[in-house]
């Protein structure tokens, strides 16, 4: 398990709660209960956003069953550390600070163009990485051109798309039901396939009330639709997931 990843939601470095549990010598279930308690307290103050500390996620165990976990930001790690006493608190603080600082250095190095690197070996290595990425992007752009033209058209509309339409548009071998399951697994939709508010606020998804007749009764039900920004957002997540699976395989 990698120590740090970049959160899709917070766009910053986060630690998996399973890794944090190992670092502080707690069971993962115990740590998740603690975090649930922190979030419950923070929710009493509307000015506090718990997502800046703990981002709810899920993972799939070897049995295929899904369990709760959290992506923990640096501020979240600080909160966990403050609740520890003695040596445990000191050791955990030292570990997570070192991990986050190393990641920050790595990000700076990754974002530095090759021509700005003075070390000739590192400069050559970075240039090779840049050229590999350029070739990959050229190939992807050629493949994605028809879809990009579609996205440009969609971006100028206020249209809403059903999940079935999105699955067809993405054309990535995933149908409507699998797409719903994927978005639930990523913590974007709840168990009723309704979007969490942060994704509605971001302009990705919209929950719409529809009506139908059942005998003499007017039945109201809610459907999730995807906005233009949401299609591209989902595509990026699917592509990233595919790349990760290819790396694992």
From TrEMBL:
InterPro entries cross-referenced by the UniProt entry: Ant_C, Phage_regulatory_Rha
Gene Ontology MF, one: DNA binding
Residue ranges occupied by any Antirepressor protein C-terminal domain in the UniProt entry: 139-240
Matches recorded under Pfam families: ANT, Phage_pRha
Stated name of the protein: Phage regulatory protein, Rha family
């Amino acid at each position: 398990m990698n120590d740090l990843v970049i959160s899709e939601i917070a766009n910053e470095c986060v630690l998996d709660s399973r890794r944090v549990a190992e670092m502080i010598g707690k069971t993962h279930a115990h740590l998740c209960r603690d975090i649930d308690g922190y979030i419950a307290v923070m929710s009493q103050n509307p000015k506090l956003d718990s997502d800046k500390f703990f981002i709810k996620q899920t993972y799939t165990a070897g049995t295929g069953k899904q369990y709760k976990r959290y992506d923990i930001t640096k501020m979240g790690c600080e909160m966990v550390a403050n609740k520890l006493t003695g040596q445990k608190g000191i050791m955990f603080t030292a570990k997570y600070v070192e991990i986050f600082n190393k990641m920050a250095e790595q990000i700076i190095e990754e974002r530095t163009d090759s021509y700005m690197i003075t070390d000739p070996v590192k400069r050559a290595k970075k240039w090779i990485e840049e050229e590999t990425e350029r070739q990959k992007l050229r190939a992807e752009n050629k493949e994605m051109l028809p879809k990009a033209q579609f996205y440009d058209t969609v971006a100028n509309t206020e249209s809403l798309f059903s999940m079935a339409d999105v699955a067809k548009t993405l054309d990535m071998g995933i149908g409507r039901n699998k797409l719903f399951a994927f978005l639930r697994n990523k913590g974007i939709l709840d168990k009723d396939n309704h979007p969490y508010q942060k994704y509605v606020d971001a302009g990705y998804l919209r929950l719409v009330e529809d009506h139908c007749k059942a005998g003499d009764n007017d039945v109201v039900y809610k459907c999730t639709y995807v906005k233009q920004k949401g299609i591209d957002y989902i595509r990026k997540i699917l592509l990233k997931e595919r790349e990760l699976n290819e790396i694992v395989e």
